[in-house]
Design brief:
Two copies of one chain form a homodimer.
Chain A: E1 2-10, H1 14-32, E2 35-40, H2 45-51, H3 57-65, E3 68-73, H4 77-80, H5 89-99, E4 102-110, H6 123-126, E5 130-136, E6 146-148, E7 154-162, H7 163-178, E8 183-188, H8 194-207, E9 214-219, H9 220-229, E10 236-239, H10 241-254, E11 262-267, E12 271-275, H11 292-304, H12 308-323, H13 340-352
Parallel strand pairs in A: 1-2, 1-3, 3-12, 5-10, 8-9, 8-10
Antiparallel strand pairs in A: 4-5, 4-11, 6-7, 11-12
Helix pairs in contact in A: 1-11, 1-13, 7-8, 9-10, 11-12, 12-13
Bound molecules: magnesium ion (2 copies).
Chain lengths: 355, 355
C-alpha cells in the first residue's frame, strides 16, 4: 500500500515521541513492502514562533493532500501562561479538526498486564479491560448556540444533534465492534434528554445493519460508576461529545499510565492520530518522554487503512517492551536509564525480528 | 428543640431501615432533651396500591406542615417492569421535590477505615476521603426546553441557569465548607459553556462573603479523573445538575458500599433526608437491609437544624458499629446473622451509653 503521511511533531516532547512512531512505521513499511512517504510540517507554538500562526496554510494544505496525519502534541508555557496571548497553540489543533471534518474521536483504553500495579483501581478490577471509546467530536452542547442575557444574569447552552451526525459515527463504532468483541454500549441520558432519545432511536436503526453486534444502553451517570466498578464489561462505547469527554477522561486514568494512551480523530476523508498526553515541556529534550502512546497512535493509523497484521505486530512489540521493562522512567521503577529512542529502537528491532 | 418530622418509609426495605433511623432520632431526643414528633405517611408503590397516587395529597400536606422529612425508598418491580403502568412510584419523589422547592442535593462520600478493602480503588488512594457534594437539583439541561423536529431527525435540549439558582446553592456550599475543611471546588466546563461561565462568575461573587473558605475550579472531565486519582483532595464540591448527577454517582462507588450513603435535598423552607440506595425489594422483610445509610440521613437531618453535637454522636455510633462489625451481611463477611434492627439497637444503645 502507498500512504502519504503528514507528520506534525508540534511542541515539547512531540518531536521526540513522533520520531519513534515514524521509525516504527518505516520498519513496518520495509517488512510488509508498503510505500509510506512522510512530510513534516509545523503546528502549535513552534508555528506561532516561526509564522505567527499555530496552523499555517502550508501545514493545512499538506494535511489536506495526505492520507493521514501523525500528530505529536502542542502547547508551550510561554503562550499558556500569558493571558494577553492573542493566538494559542491549541487553536491550531481545533482548527485542524474542523478544517478536515474530523467528527469522531476514538480512544482505546487497555489494561496492560505488566502495568496493572500502576492503576488506582485494584488489580482484579482492572485486569482484562480493553475498551474503545467512540466520541462524537463536532456537535452537541460544546458547539451549540450560547446565550448570555443583557443583564448578565442568565446564560444558556444548546445541545443539538441531527440524524447525520449520529449515523456516521454509529457506523464507525459498529464496524469497530465487529472486529472486537461484538458489543456496542451507547452512553446517553435518554430518560431525561430529547437529544439522547434521538441518539437511541438512530443508533438502534443503525444496529439493524450489524446483526452480529450487540447493542446495549447505559445512562451516563451509571456509566461513570460502571467504569470504576467493572470496566471489563465494556467493548465499544459510543457516545455524544460531552459525555464522551467526561467518560473518556475518566477511563484514561484507570489504566495507570497516560503515557500509553493513543487516539484517532476520523472524518469522511481524513484521519489524524495522536497520543492523548500533552507537550510536557519540562521533559523536552531529556530523552525521558514515553514514546509508546505515539507508537500506538501509529498502530491505529495502520488499523485505519485495514493493515491489521501490521498494527498487530506493532502492538505485539509494545507488549514485549512492557513485559521486558524496556520502558521510560515514568513507568519503569527498576531501570531508569532507558531513553525515548531506546524504546523506539527496541520496537523497531522487534518488528524486523519478532520472536 | 421541637421538631415535627414526617416519616415516609415507602417501599421495599424503606420501612425497615427508616424504623432504625426513627429509633436513633428518638434516642437522641431523649438524651439531649429535644421534642421530636413523628408522623408517618404513604409514598411510592404502596401509595399507588392504596390510593392510586404515588404522592397522595394527605402525604404532601403532611410534608408541607412539618420541619423535615425522613424518606425511605420507593420502587416496586410490579410497576417498574410494566411499560403500560401509567403511574410510577418514582413520580412521587420527583413531585415531592418539586412541590417542596428542594433545589440542592447534598451527598457526602466518606471512606470508612473498616471498609477500605471494599473499595474498587486501592486503599492508599481512598483512605482519608471525606467529600460533600452540593448538586443543583431543579435547573439546567434536565429541566430546560426540549425540542424534536417534525421530521424526527433533529433534537435539542437547553441548559439554562439564572443568578438566583446559582446563588442560593452556592451559599449552602460555602456555609458547609466553613464547618469542614474550608474548601469549595466548583466543577464546571467554563472553557466551553456559557452557563458554566455564569456559574464561575456568580460563585466567585458569593465567595467574597466567605473569606475563610478557599474556592477553586475544576473542569468536569478533569473532575471525573481526579475523583479516581486523588479523591482526598476534595472537601465541598459544588456543581450544576447534570455534572452533579455524573460526579456524585461516580463518587458513590469509590467508598465501596452504597449501603452507607446518605443524602439530603434542601430548599428554602423544607428539607428531606434519605439513603441513596433503592427499595431493594428482593431483601424486603428479611432483616438483612443495611440501616446505616438511613441512620446517617438522620444525622444529616440533625446537622440541618444545627444540632451538631447530636449528629456527631450518631456518626460516632456508626463508626463504632463498623469497627466492631455490628453490621448487616452486605458489608460483613465475618458475622452473617446480624440483622437490620440489631444494628439499630446497637447504635441506640451507644447513644444512651457512649464509651
Ligand atoms: Mg477532556
Ligand atoms: Mg444519577
Amino acid at each position: 500500500m502507498k500512504l502519504k503521511i503528514a507528520v506534525l511533531p508540534g511542541d515539547g516532547i512531540g518531536p521526540e515521541v513522533t520520531n519513534q512512531a515514524v521509525k516504527v512505521l518505516k520498519a513496518i513499511a520495509s517488512e510488509f513492502d508498503h510505500t509510506f512517504s512522510f512530510k513534516t510540517a509545523d503546528v502549535g507554538a513552534i508555528a506561532i514562533d516561526k509564522y505567527g500562526d499555530p496552523l499555517p496554510d502550508k501545514t493545512l494544505d499538506l494535511c489536506k493532500s495526505t492520507d493521514a496525519i501523525l500528530f505529536g502534541s502542542i502547547g508551550h508555557p510561554k503562550y499558556d501562561n500569558d493571558p494577553s496571548a492573542k493566538v494559542r497553540p491549541e487553536q491550531g489543533l481545533l482548527k485542524l479538526r474542523k478544517e478536515l471534518g474530523l467528527f469522531a474521536n476514538i480512544r482505546p483504553v487497555k489494561a496492560y498486564k505488566p502495568l496493572l500495579d500502576k492503576s488506582p483501581l485494584k488489580k482484579a478490577i482492572i485486569d482484562g479491560t480493553d475498551i474503545s471509546i467512540y466520541r462524537e467530536l463536532t456537535g452537541g452542547i460544546y458547539f451549540g448556540k450560547k446565550e448570555l442575557s443583557e443583564d448578565g444574569n442568565t446564560a444558556s447552552d444548546l445541545c443539538e444533534y441531527s440524524r447525520i451526525e449520529i449515523e456516521r459515527i454509529a457506523h464507525l463504532a459498529f464496524k469497530a465492534a465487529r472486529a472486537r468483541k461484538q458489543k456496542v454500549t451507547l452512553v446517553d441520558k435518554a430518560n431525561v434528554l430529547e437529544s439522547s432519545r434521538l441518539w437511541r432511536k438512530i443508533v438502534t436503526e443503525v444496529a439493524a445493519d450489524y446483526k452480529d453486534v450487540d447493542l446495549d444502553f447505559l445512562f451516563v451517570d451509571n456509566a461513570a460508576m460502571q467504569m470504576i466498578l467493572n470496566p471489563k464489561q465494556f467493548d465499544v462505547i459510543l457516545t455524544e461529545n460531552m459525555f464522551g469527554d467526561i467518560i473518556s477522561d475518566e477511563a484514561s486514568v484507570i489504566g495507570g499510565s497516560i503515557g500509553l494512551l493513543a487516539s484517532a480523530s476520523v472524518g469522511e476523508t481524513h484521519a489524524m492520530f495522536e497520543p492523548i498526553h500533552g507537550s510536557y515541556p519540562q521533559a523536552e529534550g531529556k530523552g525521558i518522554a514515553n514514546p509508546i502512546a505515539s507508537i500506538l497512535s501509529a498502530a491505529m493509523l495502520l488499523d485505519h487503512f485495514e493493515l491489521y497484521n501490521e498494527a498487530e505486530l506493532v502492538r505485539l512489540a509494545v507488549d514485549k517492551s512492557l513485559k521486558l521493562k524496556i520502558t521510560t522512567p515514568d513507568i519503569n521503577s527498576e531501570f531508569d536509564s532507558i531513553t525515548t529512542s531506546n524504546v523506539g529502537d527496541f520496537i523497531e528491532d522487534f518488528i524486523f525480528n519478532p520472536n
